[in-house]
Design brief:
With 284 residues, the chain is of the alpha/beta class. It is built from 8 helices and 7 strands. A 7-stranded parallel sheet has the order 3-2-1-4-5-6-7, sandwiched between helices. Helix 5 runs parallel beside helix 6.
Length: 284
């Protein structure tokens, strides 16, 4: 005889009345993370740089899903900016239940990176300023957000922190994906070192936070997604697909189920873990 109550499946994933913050929330994946939380009943706060127009994106989220949402401009590398955002959120909603540390710099291999060399992304040429900027946003920003918003969770003795890592926080980049025909080895583009360093460090931050606030019923997990198909060149996607057992990249909405699971009571006995969702790439 089943011990599952009739509404158990619904209530496990119900976020009605909870307040969720998504950093980098006006971007492609950040917005989709926020969308599934809003669809589950959460009041979602999208934090992003002013140029990304988080207020407009929050309005779109609210129109699409119903719960009141908020878009705030903030610099996650500035503790003062985050404290100001916290004060606005607390004045409006009175609580913070969920934090998704999603914001990150992700310079494309073909970008200039502020350097004059075409091979700027190579370790020997990698600009120190790009290193500092990437670490500041992707890692220091996650630390500061966890501290500023996590302390509000401590006061409530409840909360969830989710760090968005990557499959490249678990395995090394396969630099063959970025090779260009006819280009000398020392000029070949590569995936920048900071991406792997930041995403790996976020998994370490996850483990640390998962035991730090357990007495306050705060869970912390990570998700390591694989690549999302947008407008990548055909030659790149063909090479990447050959490395993925499911033979494709993810659709932009395919991480929503995992995001909702990790942010809801459905994962109430899960903390300190890294959920890998990558089409099977890291099992090879």
């Amino acid at each position: 005889m089943s011990t599952v109550t009739p509404n158990r499946a619904h209530t496990l994933f119900d976020l009605t009345g909870r307040v969720a913050i998504v950093t980098g929330g006006a971007g492609l994946l950040g917005y989709h993370h926020g969308a599934i939380l809003a669809a589950a009943g959460a009041n979602v706060v999208l934090l992003d740089l002013a140029v990304a127009n988080p207020a407009m994106r929050a309005e779109q989220l609210q129109l699409a899903h119903g719960p009141e949402c908020l878009g705030l401009s903030a610099d996650i590398t500035s503790e003062k900016s985050l404290q100001e955002a916290r004060d606005v959120i607390m004045a409006k909603f009175g609580r913070i239940d969920i934090l998704i540390n999603n914001a990150a710099n992700n310079p494309k291999v073909e970008d200039t990176g502020g350097a004059t060399s075409q091979a700027w992304s190579r370790l020997e040429n990698f600009p120190l300023q790009v290193w500092n900027d990437d670490i500041a946003v992707g890692l220091t920003g996650a630390f500061l957000c966890s501290r500023v918003f996590g302390m509000e969770m401590v006061k409530r003795n409840s909360g969830v922190i989710l760090n968005v890592a990557s499959d490249l926080g678990v395995i090394a980049p396969d630099q063959r994906l970025y090779r260009k025909e006819g280009v000398p080895d020392h000029e070949q583009p590569v995936k920048p070192v900071t991406y792997s360093v930041v995403k790996t460090a976020l998994i370490g931050l996850t483990r640390y936070l998962s035991t730090y606030w357990t007495a306050h019923n705060i869970r912390c997990n990570a998700i390591s997604p694989g690549g999302v198909f947008t407008t990548q060149p055909d030659d790149f996607t063909a090479k990447l697909h050959s490395l993925i057992p499911m033979a494709r990249m993810a659709h932009k909405d395919e991480y929503q189920g995992a995001i909702l699971f990790l942010c809801s009571d459905a994962s109430s006995y899960m903390t300190g873990q890294n959920l890998i969702v990558d089409g099977g790439r890291t099992v090879l």
